Amino acid sequence: MKINLKINNINRDIDVEPGEVLYDVLRRCGFTSIKKACGTSSCGVCTVLLDGMPVPSCSYLAVKADGHNITTIEGIKEEADRIGKFMVEEGAVQCGFCSPGFLLTVIAMEREIENPDSQGIKNYLAGNLCRCSGYEGQLRAVKKYMGVSE
Amino acid sequence: MNIKKYLRPLNIDEAYGLLQSKNAVIIGGGAFLNLGNREVETAIDLSKLNLNFIEEKNGEFLIGAMTTLRKLETSSFAKENFDGVITKTLSCIMGVQLRNTATIGGSVYGRYGFSDIITTFLALDAEVELCNGGKMSLEKFLEEKIDRDILLKISIKKDNRKAAYINMRNSSADFSLINVAVAMKDNRFRICVGARPKRAKVAYEAMSFINSSEVNEETALRAGEIASTTLQFGGDIRASAEYRKELCKALVKRAIMEVIQ
C-alpha cells in the first residue's frame, strides 16, 4: 500500500505492508534515532509524535498514520539539545537507549500542559521506562528545564 | 499481527458487511496489536466513520467508539462530571503513548477482564450502541455472546451521580489485579468489581446490604466482605484468588467511603 507521511516536515510517499508498524517504516526510511524495546506499547522507548501527540511506534500501524505528521528526534534537534543539556547536568542519562522517546515525550508535555507541577510531570512521563537511571535524575532534569521548583 | 488487507470503509453498513467476511477484524487503536501472532485476512479501520466524538445530547453523554482514551481523559466532560472518575480511571492506564492510541471502542468491545474503564462505565450504568445489536446496557453486553458486531458509541445518563474508582496494580504500568468502582445516585449505591481477573461484575448482594444500611466504615467494610464472598475470583500471573478476595473487601469499603465524603 502507498501512504503519505509528513516526517519532520517533509512529505514522503512510502510503500508499506498492511501490517507493518510505524517503527519499522521509519527505521527503513533512515530515522534510526527510534529504538524498540518491549514491542507491546508498554515502555515508551519507541515514542514518536503523531500530530504532536506521543504514540508508541512499535504498535502503531503505518497505514493508520497515512496523511499525518510524524516527528522524530531528527526533526527537533535544537529542542532535544536544550533538554539534553539538563539531563547531562543532572546525571539523568546512562545507556541512552530510552532518551529519544523520553525527550519526545517531554517536548509533547511542554506543548500540551501549561505549568505542570512535579506530580503532573511524573504522571505524563509514567509511560517512559528507564532501566538505568532510577528516574530521580530525569525528574530533576525535567523540573529544572521546565522551571518547576517544588 | 500479520495483516493481508487493510480497508477503511466510508460508512457503517460497508464496515459491517466487511466484518462478516472470513477472518476479518476491526482495528480500533491497535494498541495491543503485538500481544498475539494472529493472521488477519482483512483489517477494518473505522477512522472514516466519524466515531471520534464526545458530546451531550438529550440528557446523555455520548462517547464515540473511535475516541482515544487520552482524548476522553483530558476532556472537560470527564473532568467535570461524576467527580472526575472517568479521568481518574483512564489516567491509571499505562502511559500517555498508549492512551493516545487505544480507543474507547476497542477497550469496551474487547470486554477484557483487566479493563479499568469497563468497571467505571458499569458503575455509571452506561449503555452501548452496536451496529446490529442496537442499544443495550453495558452489563447485558458483558454477559451476552456478541460477535462480529461494531460498537458505535457509549452513552451515560447525565444524572450527576457521585462516583469513585480504586485499583491495585503490582506496578503502575501493569494491568489492574483488581479494580472497584462505586457510584451513588439518590443515596443508592452501585458497586462494581473488575479484574477478578474475569470481566467486571455488579455486586448486587453487597449493594442490597449497603442500600438498606446506615453507611459508615463498619457497614462499608461489610459490603466489601459480601462482595468478596458473592463474586467469583480467580488466580493468574498477577495475583491469587485469595489475595483478590482480601483486596476486594478493602477496596469496596474505601470506594464507598470516598463516594460519601
From TrEMBL, chain A:
What region holds the 2Fe-2S ferredoxin-type domain? 1-76
Q: Which GO terms describe its molecular function?
A: 2 iron, 2 sulfur cluster binding; metal ion binding; oxidoreductase activity
* Protein name, UniProt field: Carbon-monoxide dehydrogenase small subunit
- Zinc as UniProt keyword: no
Coiled coil stretches, renumbered = none
Q: Which domain of life is it from?
A: Bacteria
Q: What keywords sit in the KW lines?
A: 2Fe-2S, Iron, Iron-sulfur, Metal-binding
Organism listed in the record: Fonticella tunisiensis
UniProtKB/TrEMBL annotation, chain B:
What range(s) does the FAD-binding PCMH-type domain occupy?
Answer: 1-161
InterPro entries named among the record's database cross-references? CO_DH_flav_C, CO_DH_flav_C_dom_sf, Diverse_Substr_Oxidored, FAD-bd_PCMH, FAD-bd_PCMH-like_sf, FAD-bd_PCMH_sub2, Mopterin_DH_FAD-bd
Record-linked PROSITE patterns: FAD_PCMH
Which GO terms fall under molecular function for this chain's record?
FAD binding; oxidoreductase activity
Which keywords does UniProt give here? Flavoprotein, Oxidoreductase
Q: Does the keyword Transferase apply?
A: no
- What is the recorded name of this protein? CO/xanthine dehydrogenase FAD-binding subunit
> What is the source species?
Fonticella tunisiensis
